[in-house]
């Protein structure tokens, strides 16, 4: 497994963005019958090549949404009340009403080793990221279109999906 080079990744995205988005749109409109098998094969192949701890771009550039359960669990872990936690670390998005990080990169990311200081109680959004394993892939195409530009694992996953679909596998 090679360390992720974010500079090289950004260059790849510039060159592949349109092609990947078009592929995902076509896949969304006309998914192959075995799409669930393909997504699992592509996911396994992608993760064999990507080490998140050499990247952490998601934690550096995005914010998870915090559910009420996340807020309760994390605030307990930090020995704070839910209100203290929200006041110190979160803001409520006016558009969606979601609780989001005030800071970017994430306040819980250790920039020296790219590890999460609350990993064992992290938000559900973080533990599921980049959401390749979601049951109904077509419900998440909009997420993959966004994540392909931010997550090297999703970029690799789309590459693998393209190959598998082209092979008719």
Main sheet strand line-up: 1-2
Round the Cα radius of gyration to an integer and report it.
17 Å
What is the general shape? globular
The number of distinct helices, counting runs of at least 4 residues, comes to 8
Helix content: 40-55%
Count every beta strand, where a strand is a DSSP E run of 2 or more residues.
4
Distance between the termini: 25 Å
Query: From the helix content, strand content and strand pairing, which structural class follows?
Result: mainly alpha
Question: What's the number of structural domains?
Answer: 2
Low-pLDDT sequence parts? none
Question: What would the average pLDDT be, to the nearest integer?
Answer: 93
Q: SSE string, helix = H, strand = E?
A: HHHHHEEEEHHH
Instruction: Please state roughly what percent of the residues sit in beta strands, choosing from under 5%, 5-15%, 15-25%, 25-35%, 35-45% or over 45%.
Output: 5-15%
């Amino acid at each position: 497994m090679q360390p992720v080079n974010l500079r090289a990744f950004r260059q790849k995205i510039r060159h592949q963005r349109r092609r990947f988005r078009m592929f995902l749109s076509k896949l969304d409109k006309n998914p192959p019958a075995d799409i669930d098998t393909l997504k699992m094969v592509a996911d396994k192949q992608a993760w064999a090549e990507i080490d998140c701890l050499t990247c952490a771009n998601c934690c550096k550039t995005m914010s998870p949404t915090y559910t009420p359960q996340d807020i309760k669990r994390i605030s307990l872990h930090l020995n704070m009340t839910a209100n203290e936690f929200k006041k110190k670390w979160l803001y409520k998005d006016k558009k969606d009403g979601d609780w989001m990080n005030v800071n970017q990169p994430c306040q819980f990311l250790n920039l020296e080793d790219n590890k999460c200081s609350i990993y064992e109680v992290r938000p559900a959004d973080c533990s599921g990221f980049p959401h390749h394993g979601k049951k109904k892939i077509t419900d998440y195409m909009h997420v993959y279109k966004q994540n392909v530009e931010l997550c090297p694992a999703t970029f690799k996953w789309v590459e693998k999906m393209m190959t598998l679909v082209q092979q008719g596998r």
